[in-house]
Amino acid sequence: MDMSKYKDLFISEAREHVQGMSNRILVLEKEPASEQSINELFRHAHSVKGMSASMGYAKIAELSHYLEDMMDVVRKGQVSVSSGVTDILLEGVDVLENMVDAVEQNESLEVIDISALLAKVMNAMEGKVEAAATGEKPPAPAPVPEPQLDPGTGAVKESPELPPLNDDDLTVRFEIAPDSLVPAARAYLAVKKLGSIGQVHQTDPPLEEIKAGNYSGHVTAWIGGAERDLILKTLQSLAEMGEISVSEPDGETAQPEESAGGVLKHPDQTAAQPKKDPGVSASGAKTVRISTALLDTFINLVGELIVTKSRLNDLLADSGSRDVDQVLTRVDHLVSGLHSEVMKVRMMPLETVTQRLPRVVRDLARKRKKKVSLEVVGADIELDRAVLEELGDPLIHLLRNAVDHGLENAEGRANSGKDETGRIVLRAFRERDMVYVEIIDDGKGMDLEAIKTKAVEKGVISRDQAKVISDEETVMLVCRPGFSTATEVTDVSGRGVGMDVVQSTVNGLGGSLSIESHTGEGTTFTLRLPLTVAIVKMLLISLVDHTFAVPITRVARTIRVTSEEFNESQGRRFLNLDEELVAVFDLGELLKIERHTNGRSLFNVVLVEATNRTVGLIVDSVIGQVDIVVKPLCYPIQYLKRYSGMTVLGDGRIVPILDLGNLF
Amino acid sequence: MAVKVLIVDDAMFMRNMIAEIFNGKKYGEEDYQVVAEAENGIEAVDMYKEHNPDIVTMDIVMPEMTGIEALKEIMSMDSGANVIMCSALGQDSLVMEALDAGAKDFIVKPFQPEKVLDVVIRILGETRGGR
Fold first, then answer.
1. Which residue from A182, A282, A285 is facing B33, i.e. has the nearest CB?
2. CATH code, domain carrying B98
């Protein structure tokens, strides 16, 4: 059978199980006696074993088999769950994950050596677990319970007192095929079948032995009331049978004419129909798996459709024809409907990203010898898949920060009168069309003086600036490129991650990052993210003959001011708005586009949100709002700091999108 | 006329594979038709009631209700039900428990399509009478 087409399905299902196992083990750590967790773990391991065996991935099957046995031993009470045990389980889950990854990359599993791990699992099953770092002694294993003998329910008699063998009993001797993996079960089935055609008076080995899984290589049964031919035919029809012989009524044993192991001739198998798509069952499955590449194509097409539709609207706005207007309205309606349905498909719960995080925090905390708990609230909130994909690394980095720097060690916490276990809360909630993800720790907060000193050292700000800088701005200094050097970013997952990368990732998604810190009490990182990034509303602005776009989510409002309203101070312009001084910049100056504004008396100013503060942007004109499809910048333009992407308007114009985080 | 098959397994992957085995195959003049799939024991019992299949392939270990529990319920509804248990390695005792509860035969993962069909044919042969 060709297995390759099942590979993708195997990989995604195996991953779900592995993730499930990981989550369950963390629960088990807190509730070592939880029957539900133990059973779920068993089931997951069992499923992975079955799937991987079917696919021919023997190593994955072997490891999951060991883990399954381990859980079996645990649920029988022979081994209890200690931290040593959960460590081994987690290690096993990690290796399983690596192997599934290898399968996906078409890499050989040969190089992955699991023998040491298997040995650990074996030892753990025998109660020999290494004491964990916390100095826990492994609990003594419970005594192995006596195997219970099941009372039989089949037609086969199992009472120890057997009626005497009749003289006309036939002696049946059979073997199970040597390549059978479950000979005891096959033998049991064979004996049951015999019991359905006659009376089985005795078996050797006794039935209880066979039921206990002991198959010694052959089985002898004494059966009465059945004809020899029927016995032969019955046993031969069973799967995985080896040699079969039935004695003659007069005691002589004779071999059947056909060699055993054959199967009843069956009707011709003809391949009648063309292959059906294995994705959909005949009963009409309620769900269908679809490749993400296909989904992205849908999104792209819908996006282009929306943009083209608005162009159509523009062109036909003055048609004066009622029919045209009606059709346009209908097209509008249909495209909007299509858009919202397609967007639903893109939405996935935050949980897909946050489900890994408790494990990450646990491992980090162990390494730093701190006790940390992570609570995730609101993970059922749905976000665009593209946003979620980018969110993983920044969240992990922020958690790492909290564990490494934010939370004090046990001594520090005791001194501050805090609970021994540091608390991190990841809270997600939605407000209108934005999603807020907060990471709140109850640690010591950020050291403002140390940040200022370091920033001056690294040349991020000048000494003078350090004197006047506000607390809110100080805290954001950690996001400046150049603030932390590569050597200080510990345990990096391979890609460069620092606070600056976190911020630019969030900005790139059309969101923003803000930090709030209270000395001695803790720090809160807030990520503000748009619900969707594929098709977004932009504000189009123009400067001379250039058009630029700014995400609507970052625009507070647009105003027109006279030149007299500007205040000047130290070479910078300010506006007094609602009793607040807002810094104002000229977009032409920022982008180095020359123009003259000296004679101007009226100015268009767009108020935008850039890193924690509102800033005014002087432009030539505000064109209006438009729905666009964001396209990424490619090499080498992506390195231009001031632009976060670009789009193509309905009329074919290419419009760069301003990166407000890096503009000022 | 078709031979109706109900496939029960909690992994979609496995259900697809088993469905493939029956795809396009015939029992004599009749096609095999997968009339329903179920992913746990409770659904299995519901699907059995709804479709009254000729053959059921039943995974042993499943959430909500295990294969053996579902088997018992089905057997109590229909004492002539043809249920084939699907097991992974190392489950001799569960298989035997299922056989005691009324399962007609069993197949072991990794499946070999011919072996699966052999088992099905044997069982159908017994219940449908001499084909």
1. A282
2. 3.40.50.2300
Average pLDDT over residues B77-97: 86
> Nearest 10 degrees: CA dihedral of A233, A234, A239, A245?
-70
pLDDT of residue B69: 92
Q: Is residue B122 part of a domain?
A: no
| pTM of the full structure | 0.49
Domains and CATH numbers, chain A: 4-125 (1.20.120.160), 170-254 (3.30.70.1110), 292-348 (1.10.287), 350-530 (3.30.565.10), 535-663 (2.40.50.180)
What are A54-112's pLDDT values in tens digits? 888 889 999 999 999 898 888 888 888 888 888 899 999 999 999 999 998 888 888 88
Which run of H or E residues covers position B36? Answer: strand B30-38
A237-279 pLDDT, tens digit per residue, is: 888 888 888 886 554 444 444 333 333 333 333 333 333 333 4
Question: Per residue in B98-128, is it b (16+ CB within 10 Å) or e — as a string?
Answer: bbbbbbbbbbbbbbeeeebbbbbbbbbbbee
Q: How far is B27 from chain A (nearest CA, A)?
A: 6
Interface test with B, best of A47, A63, A277 (most B CBs within 10 A): A47
Three-state SS at A649: coil
d(CA A29, CA A542): 59
Q: Indicate yes or no: CB of A47 within 8 angstroms of CB of B61.
A: yes
Pairing assessment for the beta strands A422-431 and A372-377 based on DSSP bridges: parallel
- Report how far residue A503's alpha carbon sits from residue A127's, in angstroms, rounded to the nearest whole number: 48
Residue linked to tokens 């419009």: A655
Q: Does residue B89 belong to the interface with chain A, where contact is any CB pair within 8 Å?
A: yes
